[in-house]
Amino acid sequence: MELLRSHLAKVRIPEPTNRIHKEECCISFDTPRSEGGLYVDMCSFLGFGKDFVRWNFERTGNSVYLHIQQERKPVPEDRPLKKPTLLAIGVEGGFDNQEPEYETTYNIVILPDYISLPFPSVELPEKVRLAADGIILAEGAAKKEQLAAWTAEKKKVSEYALTLQQLDNGVLVHSSGWKCSKCDKTENLWMNLTDGTILCGRKNWDGTGGNNHAIEHYEQTKYPLAVKLGTITADLESADVFSYPEDDSVEDPLLAQHLSHFGIDFSSLQKTEMTTAERELDQNVNYDWNRIQENDKDAELLFGPGYTGLVNLGNSCYMASIMQVMFSADSFVSRYYENRSLREAFDTSPADPTVDLNTQLTKLGHGLLSGKYSVPPQVGNEDGKVQNDKQEGIPPRMFKTVIAAKHPEFSSMRQQDALEFLLHLFDQVERANAGTPDLDPCRSFKFVIEERLQCPSGKVAYNRRSDYILSLNIPLHDATNKEQLEAFHKKKAELGLEGKEISNDEIVRPRVPLGACLSNFSAPEEVQDFYSTALNAKTTAIKTAGLTTFPDYLVLHMRKFVMEAGWVPKKLDVYIDVPDTIDITHMRSKGLQPGEELLPEAAPNEEENDASMELVASEDIVGQLASMGFNYLHCQKAAIKTSNAGVEEAMNWLLSHMEDPDIDDPISSGSSKAPPVDEGSVQTLVSFGFHEDLARKALKASGGNIEKATDWIFSNPEASSSSMDTDSGNAVASSSAAQTDEAAAVPDGSGRYKLMGMVSHIGTSTHCGHYVAHVVKDGRWVIFNDSKVAASVDPPKDMAYLYFFQRY
C-alpha cells in the first residue's frame, strides 16, 4: 500500500470532459475480454493490452493502472432467428445480434512488477478509489462517439405538411377500387393531398412500378405531397407519405385531416401495399441481399492472418469494405504492417496515439493481417458443450474516429458512399505522409488523366489532372442481351394487362461488357460553351480522354446512379460483365502529336475581353449535381473550374475540393480585378519549399492569407501541375516541364491488370443499404461481410460498385 501511495501524484480523478479509453487498447484490439484484460492508465486514461502496457510505462513512467477483466458467461442454445422487419441491428424488429453477457472484475495494478490490489477495497487510498470509480462509471470514449444500433433515420416532418392548401374541388375518394386517372394501373397508386388526384408511381428500369404519372403531375402543378394508397391504416404513422420537393418519404402530422378532406375514413382501411421502406427491405432480404452476401451458399468460414473481419459499428460497412480491400494491396500492407511494427508506431506517435492516423492505420493493419484476432470463438452453452461460430472480428472505432475527424458526414452514424470514403481516405493518408511522400501507399493508386480538346479551328489544348478513381458511365445501349430484354418487356407488358406482376426469378437485367464502359470513357464528346482563344469566341469543342500513366492498382467506379426526369436519382439495375483480366494499353494518351497546333494562350493585356471570356456555369451540370444534394454554390464552382466539361468531371473536382478553405467564398465577377498578390507572402511560401507559381496561385485562391494558402496547397496536390487556367476558365496548353513533373510523381507501367477485389452495394442509394467486399486471397475469392469472413462460392463479379485491379 505504501508503494501505491508513493505514486499518488500521477493518479488523476477523471473529469467529465476526459476521454476514457476503457473499452479497447490504443495500440491493439485487445479489450477487457482479451486474455490478460485491459490496463487503463490512471493518469492519461489510455487503455493498453497486457503486451503493450509496459511500453506505456517505459515511455511515461505512469505506474498505476486499473486492470479490467471480463469473462464470458455461458449462453443458452441458439434461439431461432426472426425475419427482420426493420433495416436495423440490435433493435426490436431488426437483425438479431445476440449479444452475450460478461462478468467484470477490477484490480489496481502497479508497474513495473505488476503488483495487484483488489478493487473495490476500503484499504485503498481515497484518491485511488475516486479515480477508479470515475473510470468505471464514466461513459467510455467509444460510446461517446457512436450509437449502438444500426437503424434507418426517423422520417422528418415535411415542411409542407402544416401549411398545405387543399383544393375545395368536391373530390371524394372511395375506400377501394382505385385506378390511375391517366392509365389502367391499379397498383403503386399515389393520391395527391392537394387535389385528390390518384396517379401511378415511378417506372422502374425493367418496366415495373408505374408510368411516372404522379411525379409528372407534381411537375405540372407543384402540389408537394402524396400518400400511397394501400398503406393507410388506423396506424397513420405507417402510411407512406412522399414529398416531391424534399425528394423523400416524410411524416405528415395532419394526415388524418388531409385524408378526411377527401372523405377518407382511415380507421376502416386495411393495408394492401408495401411502403417504400418495406419494399426496399423486401428487395434487400431477397434478391440483391442474398446474391451479394451469398446467404444461400454453404460457405466455409475462414480464419487466420489476412482473414479478420471488422465489426459493424452502426452503418460502418462502407468503411469496412474499403479497408479490407486496401489492406489486400501491397502498398498498404508494406507501409502499415510489414515495414512498421506496433512498437515503432507507438514510439513515434504523439502523447495520445488515438488521434494519430498513421498509428491507427498501423494498429488496423496489424489487427487485420496478423491473425491474432481471427480465431473461431469457443462458446460454451448451457450443457457445457463447446460450439464454434463465426469470428467476432475487430471494431475499428479509433480508426473511424481519427479518419472522420472534422468531417460532418463520416463522423456521423449515417450510411455513406463507399466511393466518397475512399477518396477521403486517400486525401487523409496523403496528408499524413506529406513529409515522407515515398512512403505514401496511395501513390500506387494514383494516375494522370489527359484530356484533348479540339475546337473548330483545328487547334488543340491538352489538360492533365491526377486522380485515384476512373469513373465510368454504363452505356445501356451496348447491352449484349437485347433480345432477352425485349422478350422480357413484352411478357411484362402482357402480364400487366392481366393485372399481374412478373416474379423476381423472371426479371431480365441488361448485361453490359466492362470493355464498353472503358470505350465510352475514351469516346469523343462535345463540350458546349468552350472559349477558343483561336476564334476569340465560345464554340463547341470535341473532347477525348486517356491516361498518360497506368497505376499499380486501378480502381474503376461504375456510375450506377443516374438522374431521371425531374432530377430524381435512380440506381441502374444492371449487370457488368467483368473479365478476370483487362488490357487498357490502348487508352494511353501520348500528348501533343506531330502536326498538331496548340491553342494560343490568352494575351494578358486583353482586359477588354475579360467580360466575354468569363465562363458561366452550365445550368445542366449544376442542376444535376445540386439534385444529388451538393451545395448549389459548390456545384457552380465545380462546373466553372472544369470548363463545363461534364457532370463527371465536375463531380470529381467537387469531391476533391470539398474541404478547400475558399469553397464557400462567392464566385468573383469577371469585371472585378483580383487584388494583387503580396510579394512578401509569396516569398514566405517559397521559403516553405513551394514553387513561386504555386505560391501565387494559392494566395489568389485564399485571398492572400498565408495559412489558408498553405492549406489550399495541401488540399490541391494537383494544382502545381494543373494546365487549367482557373482564373479565366480557359483551357490552355500545359508546359511539357509541368507535365513531366506530374507524371514523374506517380507510378507507371503496363496496362495489363487482373481483378483483385470489389465492393458491392445493396440498396436504392449509396447512402443507405449495405456494402460487402470480395477480395482474391491465396488464389481464391473471399467475402468480407463485416465480421463474417468466408470462402466465396459465387462472387457477384457482375454486380459490384467499385472494382479494384492490380497490374500484372
TrEMBL record:
Residues 717-739 have a biased composition (Polar residues). Keywords: Hydrolase, Metal-binding, Protease, Repeat, Thiol protease, Ubl conjugation pathway, Zinc, Zinc-finger. The active site is at 317 (nucleophile), 770 (proton acceptor). It comes from the Eukaryota. Residues 616-657, 676-716 form the UBA domain. InterPro entries: Papain-like_cys_pep_sf, Peptidase_C19_UCH, Ub_carboxyl-term_hydrolase, UBA, UBA-like_sf, Ubiquitinyl_hydrolase, UBP13_Znf-UBP_var, USP. Zn(2+) binds at residues 180, 183, 200, 213. One of its GO terms (biological process) is cell communication. It is an enzyme of class 3 (hydrolase). Signal peptide: none annotated. Residues 308-808 form the USP domain. PANTHER family: UBIQUITIN CARBOXYL-TERMINAL HYDROLASE, UBIQUITIN CARBOXYL-TERMINAL HYDROLASE 14. Belongs to the peptidase C19 family. This is Ubiquitin carboxyl-terminal hydrolase. It comes from Rhynchospora pubera.
